[in-house]
Write a sequence for this structure.
């Protein structure tokens, strides 16, 4: 397995995307967080969330429980930091966990997971948690904002058997928006 990544800042602003990668014998954890536009401290929120989820004591034999607990801990940390800064903050987040020949994905917001099959098909494996307003602006319906998680975190499971690559990316990347931050993490399987 080979992991590569690329990130760029949007025009006239600092990059509010953060990613972390942790590789160990039992499994690999990849977290991508995108600070929420319209809220303050997006970069801080993305850094807190990516650090807490990546550094979580993962139980690689029970990804569902680990995802729910790691996301809940990140949400509590955002609540604490929001109170400390007296600011509303939050982020979209995607988490990819790879254990042996299995890929697990969980996400809140609009971080996307794409998979390219060995037959050349490009598949969108995740769904966006967004609403589009009358003005065309999109709004996250699920994210980490320090207000508690209303629903259990769902986990998508894939086998690496038929997958060449997986890509985890922010909306700035897949929308090719030069005004927005853009980050992609690509995982190539042998």
């Amino acid at each position: 397995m080979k992991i590569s990544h690329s990130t760029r800042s949007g025009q006239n602003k600092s990059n509010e995307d953060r990613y972390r990668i942790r590789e160990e014998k039992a499994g690999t954890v990849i977290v991508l967080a995108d600070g929420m536009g319209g809220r303050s401290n997006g970069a801080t929120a993305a850094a807190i969330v990516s650090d807490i989820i990546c550094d979580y004591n993962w139980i690689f034999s029970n990804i569902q429980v680990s995802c729910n607990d790691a996301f809940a801990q990140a949400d509590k940390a955002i609540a604490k930091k929001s109170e400390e800064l007296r600011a509303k903050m939050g982020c979209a987040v995607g988490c990819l966990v790879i254990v042996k020949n299995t890929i697990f994905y969980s996400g809140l917001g609009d971080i996307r997971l794409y998979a390219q099959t060995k037959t050349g098909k490009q598949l969108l494996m995740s769904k966006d948690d967004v609403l589009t307003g009358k003005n065309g602006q999109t709004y996250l319906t699920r994210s980490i904002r320090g207000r508690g998680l209303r629903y259990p975190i769902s986990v998508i499971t894939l086998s690496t058997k038929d997958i060449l690559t997986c890509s985890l990316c922010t909306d700035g990347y897949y929308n090719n928006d030069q005004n927005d931050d853009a980050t992609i993490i690509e995982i190539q399987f042998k």
